Amino acid sequence: MRMAVDDQHLAVAAAHGDSEAFSALLGRHYDRVFALAFRLTGQRAEAEDLTQDICAALPDKMTNYQPSARFTTWLYRVVVNAAHDRRRRAVTRTKAASGWGDWEVDRQAAIAETNDQLDWLTRAMRALPDDLRDTLALILDDVTHADASEILGVSPGTISWRVSEAKKHLRALKQQEDAS
Amino acid sequence: MSDPFDDFDDLKAAMQAATPAPNVARKAENIALAEKNFATRQETARQPRFTSDRPKQGLFRGVISMLNSISTRHALTATTAIVAIGLFVYLPTLQQGPTPVTLTEAETRSRLAVDDQIAQAAQQEAEETDALSGQLVEPLAEIAASPMADIAATRPAALEPMAGVLAPPSATKRMLAPPPPGYDNRDQFALPEVDTEAYPEAEPNALKITTEESVSTFSIDVDTASYAILRSSLNAGQLPNPEQVRIEEMVNYFPYDYTAPLDELPFSSRATVIDTPWNSETQLVHIALQGQKPALDARPPLNLVFLIDTSGSMDERNKLPLLKQSFQLMLAQLRPEDKVAIVTYAGSAGQVLDPTPASDRATIMAALDKLDAGGSTAGQAGLQQAYATAEAMTEEGDVSRIILATDGDFNVGIDDPDELEDFIARKRQTGTYLSVLGFGRGNLDDATMQALAQNGNGQAAYIDTLSEAQKTLVDQLGGALFPIANDVKIQVEFNPAQIAEYRLIGYETRALNREDFNNDRVDAGEIGAGHAVTALYEVTPVGSPARLSDPLRYQAAEVTSVSEEYGFLRLRYKRPGEETSALIETPILPGGDATSDMQFAAAIAGFGQLLQNSPYLGNWSYTQAIDLANAAKGEDAFGYRAQAVQLMRLADTLSQ
Asked: Check: CATH 1.10.1740.10 for A1-101?
């Protein structure tokens, strides 16, 4: 029965405290959230943690849901913002941890090693500047330019520019890689 | 080899392959966590507080909720920021921080709550973050700086519906009003006005000085939605927002018995100068257009395409069921040679009923009855199909009209309103008319409705009760469905020798440029059979003590005319199907007699300005509006005017 109801409707119900609607909605979109989280972070563990952050905060965010927004668009915005917050905190941590010496060096090396085993695209995505990666992750998830501009809070023109810029970056990386 | 970067599908596929599936155990854990938090949140938010009681507990939690409700985006950082300020800068910074434009009672209380509790909470947080705090001071302070600025920018926007109401008493009333259904679980900081209704932003017309700008141009408007919207607000015990009030739609809601046109003209036009009820030193120029009364027997066959929004949100008593009843009322009025088709839109658009003669009522009724709400709204796909159906149905001499019934969402398909308008404007050339009927409240996109109807040569009406459906669809079947003149524009040139200042009351969303008047390619409003259209100017004669602007000292206005005329009224219109417009010209002469129709129109215009908190009314109040409207009620066969007086009384009570 619930599956027949559209997202907007469930979301409105959830915003008004319907826990069944909230569960149905989350069950429906969890994988999508995780996939986007992975594309935004480029690391599986990081994506799992980000998804957990989002799950923890979602009940609070839910009350702000406005039915004028398409639910997936709204949800993507939540994910993108959570990813930004996480990055900001990561910067803080890195700053705080910059003096920790060998332990951190070892850890970074271990991470680099894992990176080599990843496929080319994931590594390339990770090498992109944050704003290009966010844009590309959304566009590759079949989000329209208009929606992406709404999610990221920039103009549609900026989105188009970023997509072409991201393509340029990827192409350059590929050439570099092929050459070496 | 092809370049994979130009082909997005390749990249997409690669990305799909690279994305791992979520860990099943983590997924279960995360979902459980979310559900637990959801349940906790419901408990803490269970008791909404819309009263003026001081909260007994959980003050700091209230502050967090307030920040959350301000903006999702900055919620996380904002709370961090508050803690950071509490920790390291303490109160002085908070007090010097950005002050919101309007502090409501509830907000002031919440600020007090902050003052009371912040020290305690900060201390508590400090213990928890003790270990890290030394290293985190600097970055946190950095973070703290930016979200606060963001909040400052966000807050006035969040408060806009309240800030728009300039009169503080009504703002307070709003806060104290009982929560509307559906918001029961929101905490006390949720403003009751947080629905997603959208209204066109238009400031009331300003006073114009005749010597500086003697010509005023606008398009006529036969929409009535604004009146029905404010009626539903007032009946719900709330004063409408000033931006919901469009005076021309209020005035034109009522049928008037203006002089019928001569045989060859589609409508009559008349300008009369009467006294201004709210200012004895100014006068009103009352412009009345009266369309030919519908000769229903001789009307051409009609093709109607009902385009019905069946999205999930339509599943409410006052939406889809009311819509079905309304259409059934209208069906009874159609003639056997008329044809009806039904297209629905929700997720995917579909034709529910092929064009069917109106005589086959059973089939049409059955198709209407089967309509069910569900799915999201794809307004544009449905529109395309409706236009295609209407075009296929049209035969020589027919009138085709799409009647779009929606609760206001067009959130799939063309989501750019401009593009949607363009689409409809292009379709208008094919001769198919579009009317928009709005149902239900809370989600109504009045701005889009207006834009669609205006671009589609149609009428926008808001239907909140069956009697409103009766008025829009049955009593005015002729007017609503048979256009007799298209692109009707009004231009008034005032005579600076007689008129010092003038002000058009209403028609803000219909203003045209002076040069648009003679440009037949510029779209304007339509008059249907039997429609009456009223426009009012308040004019200040030269030498009147009510004049608000002083005459210039150095640039004495060159007044060459010695005419007695107040001004000159020009009208342009096209007959349906014609490309070039015809012109009607009439001088505006002083000293007219006010009929009760004119007085009633003036009373309604005054009522609308009271709702807008207009500065031009002086001490004129609802009491005088009620007296004037009561005296000018006339025959009032349908009881519309009596209802208007009732609404004035309601507004009077609510505004005190």
From this structure: yes
